[in-house]
Amino acid sequence: MITQNLDYNDGDTLLEAYVAYQETKTQKPLILVAHDWSGRREFACKAAERIASMGYIGFALDMYGKGIFGADGDTELNSSLMNPFASDRSKLRQRIRSALVAGRNIPQVDASKVAAMGYCFGGMCVLELARSGADVQGVVSIHGIFSPGDVPNEEIKAKVLCLHGHDDPMVPPEQVLAFEKEMNEAAVDWQVHAYGQTMHAFTNPAANNPDFGTVYNAVADKRTYQSLANFLEEIFEPSD
Question: What is the pTM assigned to this prediction?
């Protein structure tokens, strides 16, 4: 497996992605990986490597800026990094679309085959990428935040898969229903898989804070990556 850091820009902001892929003589689909609220740290980089092991090119994008990271358990710091984007969806959309441009420019990438996935805050990011009308085949929110901002949606071209813990205190059932209504009204090809007895951050083995609502769930974790594999295979299936 080949891994490398890749600098790119959103305007004057320098960003740093982590790219992973298996050595290839042919171009492969690109999967953007959007990090949680703590930044493009080891969890997101390992996810990009996992994507590479599935035969795609994993691109762990950077929402905050090169060298800017949060920390496990530091709610105040992580919130200070995330909130400027959560409260300004135009800024969020521009930032993640800069990653889309940078990823498509990688020589090993088939620029016609792109998807995006994201964890927690990253789930919000990839849903906003879809809402921005980006020309991508699919987006996957993994224990992501569903609530939209106040920016109007463009035509959503992507298929949408949300992998959600039913007991996630950050995404209550009424928010799930509102999201489903939003997707239906936009005529989107969407899926929501809700896992019972499952809280937020369920794919992160380091998550173990029931009071905060973040708890790892091994069964839901396994189901998530099986659903992800099936979804990616479906959206990149060659057309006749």
Answer: 0.97
